[in-house]
Design a protein that fits this description.
- The protein is built from 16 helices and 25 strands.
- The protein is an alpha/beta fold.
- A hairpin with a 2-residue loop joins strand 2 and strand 3.
- The protein is globular and about 85 Å long.
- The mean pLDDT is 97.
- The structure holds glyceraldehyde-3-phosphate.
- The site of glyceraldehyde-3-phosphate (G3H) has 9 residues, from loops.
- Glyceraldehyde-3-phosphate binds next to loops.
Length: 536
């Protein structure tokens, strides 16, 4: 039988993508890269390798499996460096913090190729998309630096209201626990790490479940660019590490992108929830609504990208498609034909779209979703749809999907395209109203009257309504958030600066004595806070 995808032997892997197996022994606590002598966790790739007749996920390295005592050492290092808001980093000027981040970005830029390779190996993301992830993160750092400079310029003047002078700035919140997702282990982890750091917080960073070795090239940069204890990087099982950290109640901000199950467990572990600020990116089931007058070709192209880029492993992916009965046949035929043209294979192949999946047992899970739908009346419309080869799952176009099938509600986070036919627009609207999720929606059509009616209803169901465009997070200057179970807090370059800080001010009644005190402090540059200086 013809294989749907060919896994390589080691010798068939192209040189530009090859990595040596990395036994990572170090972790970063209090400015020291310590060597771990305890247990290690093996790290397997999303990509399988053929050795003789055996095909199995490539072993690409290992990382420390830290114990509770060591995880708590990392916490203490962060707590000490913050020193209840009196630490050198917490009280540093904006200029100092921006310079540190710029130095770090320079080191990161030099590691671009290495970071790209680890993304390819650890999560199976295509070479092109992996490069984009690194570049997008570098851009995010420079945009964040510029955004903070802007904010600083705006905060560098005194206000006067009701005879009270005030200077208002944003100050850090404390110790941040930062955990990113496996699908964007660099970019989305840094989308919280960078603003947390630049606002003067101290951080404990635990990498995503896949995308661990990826951070290895950056550890020395973390050590060298920031004061000791400001950034600590730990590895290992969550129950041994982040669980005990949360139980101490010493975490001030919990920045997490992943499943609500883990988020809720960790939030509940904190003994003083009133002191915990959470920034969460969780599940979503973003629908596409295809109206009867949608142009088939452009709609299919956009939906294909929305459902299958990075194998549908994006929280913003389109995960359920509602198509009007009048055009459902033409739409499904075109979509099925288009899937066939997609290149499937290894991440380094030019033009590849669908690649192997990193999560253990993921193809089995996707298969149970397909089998469940088929047993309840759906069909897989495309040739090879749902076929599995080790860690590879051929995209499955499922139709007709209906209530009662698991795929109707569950977030597949993989290459399954479930399609529902509708006649009355209330059907997709009711789906969204009743959904536990509320991130984004895509509406496809031409009729401005119909689209405007939908916009006005759906903006209160989700946080971004996309017109004739797939759902997505970027550009990163736009707000990224969600309603209901999909998120807590808003991330964008500027919003993130606010999320990881609090407004704090110095105020004084307008009288001779206070004017003099303020003038002396400002003119003699005695304070970092009460100051009219700004950086360009
Ligand atoms: O996985 C969720 C990501 O935030 C999606 O980001 O829309 O840029 O792919 P993206």
């Amino acid at each position: 039988m013809k294989k749907i995808v060919q896994f390589p032997s080691w010798s068939e892997v192209p040189d530009f993508v090859k990595v040596d197996i990395l036994q990572q022994k170090t972790y970063l606590i209090n400015g020291v890269l310590k060597t771990w002598t305890g247990d290690f966790l093996d790290i397997h790739s999303a990509i399988c390798i053929q050795e003789g007749t055996k095909i199995s996920p490539a072993l690409v390295g290992s990382c420390p499996s830290l114990d509770k005592k060591t995880a708590l050492e990392a916490l203490e290092a962060a707590v000490e460096s913050y020193d209840k808001g009196r630490g050198v980093w917490a009280t540093a000027t904006v200029k100092t913090r921006c310079e540190a981040l710029s130095r770090f970005a320079k080191i990161m830029r030099e590691k671009r190729a290495e970071l790209t390779k680890w993304l390819v190996w650890e999560i199976g993301k295509s070479w092109t998309d992996s490069e984009k992830e690194v570049d997008r993160t570098l851009l995010y750092i420079s945009d964040t630096i510029e955004a903070l400079k802007n904010l600083d310029r705006e905060s560098s003047r005194l206000k006067k209201e009701d005879s009270i002078y005030a200077q208002i700035r944003r100050g850090p919140l404390g110790v941040v626990l930062c955990m990113g997702p496996f699908n964007y282990p660099l970019n989305e982890t840094f989308a919280t790490l960078i603003p947390a750091l630049i606002m003067g917080n101290s951080v404990i960073l635990k990498p995503a479940k896949n995308g661990i070795l990826l951070l290895h090239p950056l550890l020395e940069g973390f050590r060298d660019c920031f004061p000791a204890g400001v950034i600590n990087v730990i590895y290992g099982h969550g129950e041994e590490t982040v669980g005990p950290i949360m139980e101490t109640g010493k975490i001030d901000v919990f920045a997490f992108i992943g499943s609500s199950k883990i988020a809720n467990t960790l939030k509940k572990a904190h003994p003083r929830p009133n002191r915990l600020r959470s920034v969460l990116g969780l599940e979503a089931k973003n629908p596409a609504i295809v109206l009867p007058d949608s142009p088939i070709e452009s709609t299919v192209n956009e939906i294909l990208m929305g459902t299958l880029s990075f194998n549908g492993q994006r929280c913003t992916a389109l995960k359920i498609i509602f198509v009007h009965k009048q055009i459902s046949k033409a739409f499904l035929d075109a979509l099925s034909a288009k899937i066939k043209t997609l290149k499937m294979g290894m991440p380094w192949e030019t033009g590849v779209v669908v690649t192997p999946l990193p999560e253990k047992e993921k193809t089995k899970y996707l298969d149970t979703l397909v089998q469940d739908a088929v047993s309840k009346g759906a069909k897989v419309l495309n040739e090879n749809g749902g076929k599995t080869e080790h860690s590879f799952f051929y995209p499955a176009l499922l139709f007709p999907v209906s209530k009662g099938m698991r795929i109707y509600n569950e977030e597949q986070f993989g290459p399954i395209i479930p399609v529902i036919e509708f006649e009355d627009i209330s059907e997709p609207i009711d789906y969204m109203v009743d959904s536990p999720y509320g991130q984004q929606v895509s509406i496809f059509g031409n009729n401005s009257g119909e689209i405007s009616g939908l916009i006005d209803q759906l903006v209160n169901q989700v946080c971004r309504v996309n017109i004739n465009s797939q759902c997505q997070r970027g550009p990163d200057v736009y707000p990224f958030n969600g309603r209901k179970d999909s998120a807590e807090g808003t991330l964008s370059v500027t919003d993130a600066l606010r999320v990881f800080s609090i407004r704090t001010m110095v105020a004084a009644k307008d009288n001779e004595q206070n004017r003099k005190v303020f003038e002396t402090i400002i003119d003699s540059r005695l304070s970092n806070f009460l100051s009219t200086d700004y950086i360009l």
